[in-house]
């Protein structure tokens, strides 16, 4: 480990990496080594052959993708593949979040039959859709499921459980077979399909070896957006995906980044997660998810510009709606504060944004949260988020008699509730939580390294960046700056909103550094902040680039 600097060694050790060989692998992702053979996934051969047959016979294919920033990039990957081949007899179908909801639906399948489709490829959904898949197969449509969500389980006598899988033509899901990377996102699974197809048929279609790497921009975008751990193969997909994103020729991406004043060449994981993803997700939450797909798939610069403007506008509208709902949540919260599982809802709450609301409540109160509203068909639908203490899918499985439908993974899910059961749901889920409750994982140390403001420099930032890409499973290193003095507090924000803080700090050795905290005020921390106050600062390094100017600041994690 001596070949690495002191700071980098310390940060690697915090991540459990103490051997030099281990560090070499972690710090230097390798596509050939770290991206697994797609044919390790069960049914990959079968899926590739069926798609080849559809292309050769010019069958009609439907790509049925989820409406979020995992399903949509996955649909773009398949679009890119089919365009490269010259196959045009396919259509994209993305269900409306607020009227159709998540997953396959029978009305859409009937529509595909009328349109003479004979192959249906799902993206980021389908693993719990046994009835819908069975109906499609009966009506003459072969279904290839690509998904990463947990399958349904049924429990027999003696508590024995078994996995209930749809009887699809082929299923690609790392959680249902022996594929080595279990935590791929939905678009990650689709990337494996594209990778497998090119490996098997690339020569036949005159596709150059390695061409599929250009689609890593979409796989990387989705992997960051879907909050899967950036370890193993996912780390490689994002590492190389970010390289492709920074030089991607997609007009929609270029227009959106330009609108956000983000340099594409210097695009960061934070830019993707906090700036790009919310705008793509706004399409399904507030309008039509096809707009986000069109932005990523279009080759027309004028269309890309118009779509970029539209998504930014509806994202602003989304923020206003979420703020209003959270205001209502805070007024009602006292009556739910002592419950193990929180269930809140209102028939007037827009279904498309409830995942954001559930996430905010869960983050703030560290409990599993279920939030519901009514869709356009008067059905009670909602989203749930876990604080990590229990799987929301297990919770819903334990109380399945309350639900018409449900699905998801350990930390997040969606559901449809029986109208006559909604007011009893909180009691039922809290009772089930008592049975399933696990000991929470031991909380990670609040900081990685204790240091002083004199260490906030570009040399150390470059050392920290060697650990990237950052995200779930590989968070940015947090530094403790003890006993620093608040010199000046400044509010800033769009159009003078003052919704963010910039604080100038100094230490006893005369070192100074600026730190920012977004969507915060002086009362957001344990103690009210004031100039002259001595505090302990927890922060990450943050390099901002605005109009070509680089500035290294700290991003505040906490002030105590």
From TrEMBL:
Domain of life where this protein originates: Bacteria
Segments forming domain DHHA1: 341-428
InterPro entries the record matches: DDH_dom, DHH_sf, DHHA1_dom, RecJ, RecJ_OB, SSDNA_exonuclease_RecJ
Pfam (any one): DHHA1
This protein's record includes keyword Ubl conjugation: no
Keywords associated with the record: Exonuclease, Hydrolase, Nuclease
Biological process, per Gene Ontology: DNA recombination; DNA repair
GO molecular function list: 5'-3' exonuclease activity; nucleic acid binding
The protein, known as: Single-stranded-DNA-specific exonuclease RecJ
Organism of derivation: Candidatus Nomurabacteria bacterium GW2011_GWF2_43_24
């Amino acid at each position: 480990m001596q070949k690495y600097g002191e700071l980098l060694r310390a940060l690697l050790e915090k991540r459990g990496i103490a051997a030099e060989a281990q560090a070499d692998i972690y710090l230097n992702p390798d596509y050939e080594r770290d991206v697994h053979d797609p044919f390790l996934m069960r049914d990959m051969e079968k899926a590739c052959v069926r798609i080849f047959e559809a292309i050769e016979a010019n069958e009609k294919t439907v790509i049925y993708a989820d409406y979020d920033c995992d399903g949509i990039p996955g649909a773009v990957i398949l679009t890119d593949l089919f365009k490269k081949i010259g196959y045009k007899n396919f259509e994209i179908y993305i269900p409306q979040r607020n009227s159709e909801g998540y997953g396959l639906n029978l009305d859409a399948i009937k529509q595909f039959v009328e349109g003479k489709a004979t192959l249906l490829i799902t993206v980021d959904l389908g693993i719990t859709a046994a009835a819908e898949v069975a109906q499609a197969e009966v009506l003459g449509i072969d279904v290839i499921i690509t998904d990463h969500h947990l399958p349904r389980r049924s429990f027999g006598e003696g508590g024995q459980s078994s996995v209930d899988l749809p009887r699809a033509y082929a299923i690609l899901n790392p959680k249902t077979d022996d594929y080595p990377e279990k935590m791929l996102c939905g678009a990650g699974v689709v990337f494996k399909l594209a990778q497998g197809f090119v490996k098997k048929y690339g020569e036949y279609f005159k596709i150059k070896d390695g061409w599929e790497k250009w689609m890593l921009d979409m796989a990387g975008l989705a992997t960051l957006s879907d909050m899967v751990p950036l370890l193993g193969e996912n780390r490689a997909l994002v590492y190389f995906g970010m390289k492709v994103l920074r030089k991607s020729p997609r007009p929609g991406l270029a227009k959106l980044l330009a609108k956000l004043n983000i340099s594409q060449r210097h695009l960061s994981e934070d830019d993707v997660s906090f700036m790009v993803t919310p705008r793509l997700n706004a399409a399904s939450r507030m309008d039509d998810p096809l707009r986000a797909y069109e932005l990523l798939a279009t080759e027309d610069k004028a269309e890309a510009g118009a779509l970029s403007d539209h998504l930014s506008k509806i994202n602003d509208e989304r923020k206003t709606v979420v703020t209003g709902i959270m205001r209502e949540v805070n007024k009602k919260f006292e009556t739910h504060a002592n419950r193990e599982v929180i269930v809140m809802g209102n028939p007037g709450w827009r279904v498309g944004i409830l995942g954001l609301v559930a996430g905010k409540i869960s983050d703030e109160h560290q409990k599993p949260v279920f939030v519901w509203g009514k869709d356009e068909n008067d059905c009670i639908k909602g989203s749930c988020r876990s604080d990590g203490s229990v799987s929301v899918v297990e919770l819903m499985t334990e109380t399945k008699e309350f639900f018409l439908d449900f699905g998801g993974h350990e930390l997040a899910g969606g559901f449809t509730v029986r109208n006559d059961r909604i007011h009893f749901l909180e009691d039922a889920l809290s009772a089930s939580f008592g049975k399933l409750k696990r000991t929470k994982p031991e909380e990670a140390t609040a900081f990685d390294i204790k240091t002083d403001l004199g260490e906030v420099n570009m040399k150390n930032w470059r050392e920290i960046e060697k650990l990237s890409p950052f995200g779930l499973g590989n968070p940015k290193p947090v530094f403790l700056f003890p006993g620093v003095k608040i010199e000046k507090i400044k509010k800033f924000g769009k159009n003078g909103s003052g919704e963010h803080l910039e604080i100038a700090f100094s230490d006893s050795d005369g070192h100074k550094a600026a730190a920012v905290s977004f969507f915060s005020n002086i009362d957001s921390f344990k103690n009210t902040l004031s100039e002259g106050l001595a505090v302990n600062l927890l922060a990450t390094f943050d390099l901002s680039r605005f109009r070509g100017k680089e500035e290294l600041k700290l991003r505040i994690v906490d002030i105590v």
